[in-house]
Design brief:
The structure holds two protein chains of two kinds. Chain A is of the alpha/beta class. Chain A is built from eleven helices and nine strands. Chain B is an alpha/beta fold. The chains are: A alpha/beta, B alpha/beta.
Chain lengths: 327, 430
């Protein structure tokens, strides 16, 4: 069986099919824990996970925290407002202080793309990317793929439409890397102002017409439209965006029977997704949230859990391989 | 003090001469070039097997003094130049404070006199404090020794300010060096816009932001009759525009840098801040256009845009790290060892791009080998192969993407005004 040999989980770009499947398979056994009356196992007892969040987040931080505590790890939560960041400390300095206080892994969210990669090069403990700027959000994409797999059995051959702000979308990027690796077709749907130049070179189909884009797709992933983007003239108004790219029941009828509606949250009901769609039978939005915990448990286990089992902490050959991308 | 350099292969791009001969330096000048010279009073260097070329003229260098002496000083920057075979540097004005008045020009020249290893020609700003609002005291700066004006590092955003600066510059006959970037279009981008910016999830700078700004300045040059020199050309369309306006007879010149000729935006992958500069590394198509521009003479010069930063400056999150890489000590090895293969230019024409042609662009002496002319000379040993090691640089900075590159040939000695300021392994101040 494949092993997780990377020190970190920084993104899905460059991650192999076998590695992704390993995470998803591991997550399946983690999900079983959720159905027990006592939702806790001792796997990571004695380990410390530091959540280092430089950007506001409720769902992802809570999800990582629950994932860690279900595996019996201790969690330190650090958010920008209370940390030394306000005093000008660098990210590696903050993380390395946590490391010498005993942290075994850092879960980091940051508003600047590449910060987890930068940190990974500058600390010896595993780094989990919980969302970096407009780059990647790998645990979100993994939970999306986990959810798709639960419903569709397999991802290869499926067509997935991702709708909305692709330009600033880290969920879109991570999903793209993961889905393409697993053999799905990916469609990006949105106004040209929100589609990053260069995507066509990566094997993604680009659509500006939502009705056409959802024809024949198996999954529709609707991204949150951030209101602050309006000031950048990416689209003239939320009303107009909603009229052109909002997912309505009417539109949903055009999609394949059995289509899954996904959303990484938090939703803007009535803008990118109508309430009826969010609450429809096609919607798996709340399942995504549940699955998020299982996937994050799997990631934590793969990054810091197996040493306990084998009791040989340094057997992983490239324990110090700095990043996913370094050749 | 006389120095006799014996039996070097003398390459003189200005005259297209390539011959083996003896060369005698007497005082500050070249006094004789003959097939065989004997002068027992001269110090003799046996240069058989080496090349003797004019000292290089790098018309785009940031020496960082005053204000950022942690990154580089006039002493270390000019020493790096000497070690790279560069005998004349044009230093940019975006220091702290900026070189925007005659006192600052005098300060630079005084520091060069006291601490420099090679000739330094300062550039003054176009606008006061680089703010892009009011034209600086250009006349006073020229009187004090400024050889050009530039707000390099920033675009002069306001077209009216640029127009007036160009008009005014014609009084003094100095070039105005433009840093072309339409800031509204680059919108905080930190690498080329395209596949790489998508793959790294970063805001990109479209090549059009450069080209649109170049178009504006070339059109204004046509109107005003100013000499516009376009710094660090990186995009294909920019080359097309320069070619177009040159053919119309506009007094325009341009330069590109070794990194644009050797690297594409792939080099920033992995958030490599040592490949982050402005304008950013672009695509293969852009690179091909730059080589075309060199070949047909559209681009007049290769300059390094030597931009030193400390290790701490560069060891940051990619968008936070400053723009710029160093280049003085890698210019000649990369030019002769890497660019030469792709440029399809003969050796003398290639060397012309770093000697007499940039000198002509900036109206400087030097860049030539001539009897009676200044003895600014570089001795090049074409044989040794090695890999570039940033830890051995004389520059204070290490920010190069070329660390570890295999190259062939090294600078053996550098003479400025007849004085040997560098020999492989040791240095001496002018």
């Amino acid at each position: 069986m494949t092993e997780w040999l990377r020190k970190d989980c920084l993104g899905l770009r460059g991650v192999s099919r076998e590695e992704i499947e390993l995470v998803l398979d591991t997550a399946r056994s983690m999900k079983e824990i959720h159905t027990r009356t006592v939702k806790k196992v001792p796997t990571l007892r004695g380990k410390i996970v530091a959540n280092l969040f430089y950007e506001p987040s409720t769902r992802t931080r809570t999800s990582f925290e629950l994932a860690a505590t279900r595996l019996s790890a201790d969690v330190i939560n650090i958010t920008t407002a209370q940390s030394s960041v306000v005093k000008g400390e660098t990210v590696p300095d903050t993380a390395n202080n946590l490391r010498v206080m005993g942290a075994d892994a850092v879960v980091i969210r940051h508003n600047i793309s590449g910060t987890p990669h930068f940190l990974a090069k500058n600390t010896s403990i595993p780094v989990l990317n919980a969302g970096d700027g407009t780059n990647e959000h790998p645990s979100q994409a993994l939970l999306d793929m986990f959810t798709i797999r639960e419903h569709k059995g397999c991802i290869e051959g499926l067509t997935v439409a991702i709708v909305g702000d692709i330009l600033h979308g880290r969920v879109a990027r991570s999903n793209m890397w993961g889905l393409l690796t697993l053999g799905a077709k990916v469609r990006f749907v949105g106004p040209p102002t929100l589609i990053p130049p260069g995507v066509q070179d990566l094997g993604v189909e680009v659509y500006h017409d939502l009705d056409k884009a959802i024809e024949g797709v198996d999954v529709i992933n609707l991204l949150r439209i951030q209101r602050e983007r309006m000031t950048g003239n990416f689209f003239p108004s939320l009303q107009e965006y909603s009229r052109i790219y909002g997912m309505t029941m009417e539109r949903l009828k055009r999609a394949k029977p059995g289509v899954l509606i996904m959303h990484p949250g938090p939703m803007n009901r009535g803008i990118e997704i109508m309430s009826e769609v969010a609450d429809s039978e096609s919607s798996v939005i709340l399942e995504q949230v549940t699955n998020g915990i299982a996937v994050r448990m799997a990631l934590l286990y793969l990054l810091i859990g197996r040493e306990i089992e084998s009791d040989k902490p340094h057997e992983k050959k490239d324990l110090h391989t700095p990043t996913l991308f370094e050749n | 003090m006389k120095t006799l350099i014996r039996q070097a292969r003398i390459l003189n791009p200005a005259t297209q001469e390539d011959k083996k001969a003896d060369l005698l330096i007497d005082g500050e000048t070249i006094s004789r070039i003959e097939s065989s010279i004997s002068d027992s009073s001269a110090k003799t260097i046996d240069a058989d097997g080496w090349w003797l070329i004019p000292g290089l003229v790098d018309i785009h260098v940031h020496l960082r003094e005053p204000g950022a002496e942690k990154k580089e000083t006039i002493a270390t920057g000019t020493l790096a130049a000497a070690a790279g075979g560069v005998t004349s540097v044009v230093c940019m004005a975006n220091t702290s404070p900026p070189i925007d008045n005659n006192t600052e020009i005098e300060f630079i020249l005084e520091r060069v006199k006291r601490t420099g290893y090679v000739r330094v020609y300062p550039v003054g700003t176009v606008t006061k404090a680089l703010e892009g609002k009011e034209i600086a005291n250009i006349g006073s700066m020229v009187d004090a020794g400024a050889i050009a004006i530039s707000d390099d590092g920033r675009n002069v955003t306001d077209p009216l300010v640029m127009r007036r600066a160009m008009e005014y510059s014609t009084i003094f006959g100095i070039p105005i060096i433009t840093h072309n970037e339409e800031h509204i279009l680059t919108d905080g981008g930190t690498l080329n816009e395209g596949k790489m910016s998508m793959m790294m999830g970063l805001q990109g700078c479209p090549a059009e932001a450069e080209s649109i700004s170049i178009a504006r300045d070339l059109i204004l040059a046509k109107k005003t009759g100013a000499h516009v020199h376009i710094a660090h050309l990186s995009a294909a369309e920019s080359v097309d525009l320069l070619r177009f306006y040159k053919r119309k007879g506009v007094q325009a010149t341009g330069e590109t840098a070794p990194h644009y000729l050797l690297l594409t935006d792939d080099a920033v992958d992995g958030y490599n801040t040592n490949a982050k500069m402005n304008p950013p590394l672009r695509t293969k198509e852009d690179q091909n256009a730059l080589y075309e521009g060199l070949k047909d003479g559209t681009i007049d010069s290769i300059a390094t845009d030597h931009a030193p930063h400390t290790i701490a400056d560069k060891n940051q999150e990619f968008p936070l790290a400053p723009f710029g890489i160093i280049g003085l000590e890698t210019l000649l090895p990369l030019l002769l060892g890497r660019i030469r293969e792709r440029a399809g230019l003969d050796l003398l024409s290639l060397l012309g791009l770093v000697t007499h042609k940039p000198a002509a662009v900036m109206n400087l002496p030097g860049g030539k080998i001539e009897v009676g002319g200044p003895a600014d000379i570089t001795l090049w040993n074409p044989d040794p192969t090695y890999s570039i090691n940033a830890d051995h640089f004389y520059s204070k900075a290490r920010n190069t993407p070329f660390h570890g590159w295999e190259v062939k040939g090294r600078v053996e000695a550098t003479f400025v005004a007849g004085r040997q300021v560098f020999s492989y392994g040791k240095t001496e101040r002018i």
